[in-house]
Design goal:
4 strands, two-stranded antiparallel sheet, 206 residues, two-stranded parallel sheet, 10% strand, mainly alpha
Length: 206
């Protein structure tokens, strides 16, 4: 059922993304030397390695900077979803060298497919605008929290917040009525100073 949902979302996204992806590929081919795509080895569900796809945006040009700033360099990851290597929502994909340093508990992230978006990714976007971005232990704890509590309701909330973040770049994971920057502590499983997700409820408060 979850796989069918991933394919449905990927198909809908592809309707909009495919023409844009083709335009980006042509622009990259015309303005930069080398391959259009970057292929990076990542570890997915049950420890299986796969090649993560993204547009090459590692230069200093205006196009590369735009792709990185908007996240459009990650459009090719939709193909990873179609191939079953990733899901729409899930933990972030990790490198093989990171997995080799993981404890048994940390390897729990590999129980599900990595995602295009996820709770940890949303928190990282929010924290990137602060002096203290997410560290590796915080990423791990947020990924594990998602794996332990994932549900359809949580996935839908993450998708909604992702769309909100794309439409309103200044809005963090807890944005919404009564949750602005001056509204006091955020609700939901954020990150505590100790690097652990705040809130132990199976579902983050809505």
């Amino acid at each position: 059922m979850r796989r069918a949902g991933d394919l449905a979302v990927a198909a809908l996204a592809a309707i909009v993304a495919l023409p844009l992806a083709l335009l980006i590929a042509v622009l990259l081919r015309c303005t930069a030397d080398g391959p259009v795509l970057r292929r990076q080895t990542r570890v997915g569900r049950h420890g299986r390695e796969f090649l993560l796809l993204r547009f090459r945006a590692d230069g200093d040009g205006r196009l590369a900077a735009l792709l990185r700033r908007t996240g459009l360099n990650e459009l090719p990851r939709l193909w990873n979803v179609v191939r079953g290597e990733m899901g729409v929502v899930g933990p972030r994909p990790v490198r093989p060298d990171q997995v080799s340093r993981c404890s048994g508990r940390e390897r729990g992230r590999l129980a599900v497919r990595p995602g295009l978006t996820g709770w940890a990714q949303l928190q990282a976007v929010s924290r990137s605008r602060t002096p203290r971005p997410l560290g590796r232990p915080e990423w791990t704890e947020l990924d594990l929290w998602y794996v332990e509590h994932r549900s359809l309701r949580l996935d839908l909330r993450i998708l909604g917040l992702t769309v909100l973040a794309l439409l309103r770049p200044d809005a963090g994971p807890d944005a919404g009525p009564g949750n602005g920057p001056d509204a006091g502590p955020a609700s939901g499983p954020g990150v505590s100073d100790a690097g652990r997700p705040r809130g132990a409820d199976p579902e983050p408060p809505g």
